[in-house]
Amino acid sequence: MTHLPPNDDPLIIAGKPYRSRLLTGTGKFKDLEETRRATEAAGAEIVTVAIRRTNIGQNADEPNLLDVLPPERYTILPNTAGCYTAEDAVRTCRLARELLDGHRLVKLEVLGDPKTLYPHMPETLKAAEILVAEGFQVMVYCTDDPIQAKRLEEIGCVAVMPLAAPIGSGLGIQNKWSLLEIVDNAKVPILVDAGVGTASDAAVAMELGCDGVLMNTAIAGAKDPVLMASAMRKAVEAGREAFRAGRIPKKRYASASSPTDGLFF
To answer: Could you report the per-residue pLDDT of 209-222, keeping only the tens digit for each?
Structure first.
C-alpha cells in the first residue's frame, strides 16, 4: 500500500488538495515498469511529463506512459522541457491540453541554454502571461530570485518553483536565503524544482518552509531508484513535520537538556 501523510496538512495546487508534497518526474527510468514502481514508492500524486519526449498518446504504436500512470489515479503535469522560447513553450502546452482532453494544469519551463538548463526568465515571464491569459493553470520553473518569483505570482501562476541548483546537478540547496525570502513573501505554493541530490536535500527544502519538492534525476539516476523514491518520500514528510513543529534557535554555546530550576542540591 502506498503510504501518504495525514489529511490535516494538504498541499493545495489550483484549488485541489494533495496529501503528498513530493512531485516526481517520469523521465530517465530504464522502463515504464520502473517508472511505475518508483512513483508508487514516492507516494507521488502529481507526476510531471515532458510532452516533447514522452508518449502520452501522440504515437499510437509506442508504449504509453498513461497505461502505467493512469490520469484517474495521478494528476498528470505536462511540462515544457526542452523549450527555449516562449513561443515553443506555449505551443507545447496547447498540445498537452489537446492530448489530455482540455487539461489546464501545466509546468512551464523555458530554458536559457543546453549546458546549464538555467531558466530564461524574460521568455518565462512572457510565456506565463500568455498561458495564464488563455486559462492555463501554470506551475512555473524559475530562478531563485525573489523579485522574479513574486512577479510570476502576480501574473497569476498557481505555484512558483525556484531551482535549488541546476537541473540534474544533485548539488542541493545553494542559496537558503533566497528560498526563505521567496517563501516568506509568497501567497501561492513554493516548490523546490531541480538540484536535489539526496534525501537530506529534500528535508532541508521542507524545513525552510517550502510547500513541496519536485524531482526526477535524484530518483531515476540513483543506483536503486525505487529505494531512493521511498527515502525521498520520508525526507519530505519529515522536513514538513519539522517545519510545522518549529525548530529550536541556534546558539553558540551549549545549554542543559534538562531544567535546572528546583534541584535538591
So the answer is: 999 999 999 999 99
**Beta bridge mates, 116:** none
Which residue(s) pair with 140 in the sheet? 108, 160
User: Rounded to an integer, what distance in angstroms lies between the CA atom of residue 206 and that of residue 208?
Assistant: 5
Which among 48, 49, 47, 36 has a CA at the least distance from the CA of 2?
Answer: 36
pLDDT grade for 10, boundaries at 50, 70 and 90: very high
Percentage of the chain exceeding pLDDT 70: 93
- The catalytically annotated residue of 16, 28, 30, 107 is 107
CA separation, residue 45 to residues 54, 106, 145, 162, 265 (Å): 18, 15, 28, 20, 57
110 contacts 123 by C-beta, under 8 angstroms: yes
Q: 53 with 83: CB under 8 angstroms?
A: no
Whether residue 2 has pLDDT greater than 60 = no
Residue 233, pLDDT above cutoff 60: yes
- Is the C-alpha dihedral spanning 71, 77, 80, 86 positive or negative? positive
Residue 54, Cβ density class (10 Å: 0-12 exposed, 13-18 middle, ≥19 buried): buried
Please state the pTM of the whole predicted model.
Answer: 0.91
Whether 176 is catalytic: no
Q: Say which residue the cell 521568455 belongs to.
A: 123
Pairing of strands 16-18, 11-13: antiparallel
CB atoms within 10 A of CB 252: 4
How buried is residue 121: exposed, middle or buried, by Cβ count under 10 Å (0-12/13-18/19+)? middle
